[in-house]
Task: structure prediction
Amino acid sequence: MSTSNGEPLAVELRNVDKAFYGVKANDNVSFELARGEVHALLGENGAGKSTLCSILAGLYRPDAGEMWFEGKPALFKTPKDALAAGVGMVYQHFRLVSNLTVAENLALGHHDQGVRLDQKELARAAEELGERYDLAVDPTARIWQLSVGEQQRVEILKLLYRDAKILILDEPTAVLTPQEGQALFKTMRQLAGEGRSIIFVSHKLDEVKQVSDRVTVLRNGKTVGGVATKDADARELARMMVGRDLELPTRSASAPPGEVMFSVSDVRVLSDRGLEAVRGVSFEVRAGEIVGIAGVSGNGQRELAQGLVGLRRLTAGRVEIDGEDVTSDTVLERIDKGLAYVPQSRLGMGLAPGLTTEENLALKAFRRPPYSRGRTLVASAFRDEGARQIEQYDIRGVRPGLPIRLLSGGNLQKALLAREVELEPKVLILRSPTRGLDVGATEAVRNQILAEGVRGTAVLLISEDLDELMALADRLLVIYEGEIVGEMQTEEATSERLGLLMAGQRVEESA
Ligand SMILES: Nc1ncnc2c1ncn2[C@@H]1O[C@H](COP(=O)(O)OP(=O)(O)O)[C@@H](O)[C@H]1O
Ligand SMILES: [Mg+2]
Result:
């Protein structure tokens, strides 16, 4: 219950179990957090990281197990209890009140109801903390006026305002640009330097390597092991995380691209609110080329993708597939001319949640052989083709007759991608194809995208994940406020250069 130098551990968990509806999210988990360390919690999606954090933060009560806080037995009954003891968490989904100010949010849940809050005093506290920890935000701003990165800073400020000694950050970098991520790491190191402890949840090995002192790996709800970060190499950590050797595929120097297959000129698209979300975008994608569009979410990516596939009207511009003008074609006509699309929301926009996997796989091709002969549907084709594709694309967890929505995110994405590439498209547009997927599914999806490039498809990959873009794309464009603000070959790209462009800073081009 204490470290080698005799100091009590900040937190210790022993043999913790927590199940949801019979599924063990945490299975006999043990975890030790020392004072003054950044401790990474690494694991694939669904490994049980958030559950463990929520137990520490008093949101969930474990079914079994013990917990000590600074050497004394403790089990927090509520997040309020935990915070009063000095343990606070920034959840993946922020819990700020959007129409209150930063200062008001700081006080929320802290000061007793009825106490009149001194706004000036609060604002001063927010400003002071913001300055000390490099977490500057305008204390008078309302939450809805802030960027996601700023909102995250408010969440951290809230914990510091309560003088939390243990800060739990659940996948904090998922919503940040690379620069914002670096700034957060600096703050984390500073906090640790003051003797606070940080639990940093991530599934990104390079981040864990960079910022943490120790790593605990979770897999399938179980602790696989804990190591000092400096003693762990990335391969070993990946193996602990996934349970097997694994290498994320990256593009190799590919054949020179062919003819222009997809041409987009001066396209303009309105947002739902009638504002111009895409403001004159032009680019080309050649056969066999993978072109990436990088950008922070909300800079016109959604409207651009929907405009290109025909789900949203263009107010200006022209789109061509293989030299043919499709600007005024319907979605269906574009599909027939060779356009395939993997949208960001797999269920709903992508797949029909209530239909079976086999039916979903046939959803775009059923008017063609082998599904149809003349005007007749061939029942056996649904079964045979379905079975073949499920096997070929390694779609797991399919139960005959049951709706596809019961599959996990990774398997949904494999099914969606299978359906699209089975059409042998000329142009494939994907949005954030591996978002939220675990490493195994990410590997499969990346391989499939690379295979499309090799097959000669013109691939447009719209993503917020720079690692993914750098690994797959031949050429990169950066979108900011509806405009393409930068273009480069992937070899010339660095995450710093991309990050600056994504944040709206035009980079001085050196001659
Ligand atoms: N509130 C909940 N209700 C039902 N199941 C849950 C809940 N929270 C987590 N789970 C399940 O527990 C497992 C672990 O989830 P989680 O702790 O969120 O993992 P991670 O944060 O590592 O992705 C998953 O199978 C998930 O579906
Ligand atoms: Mg989680």
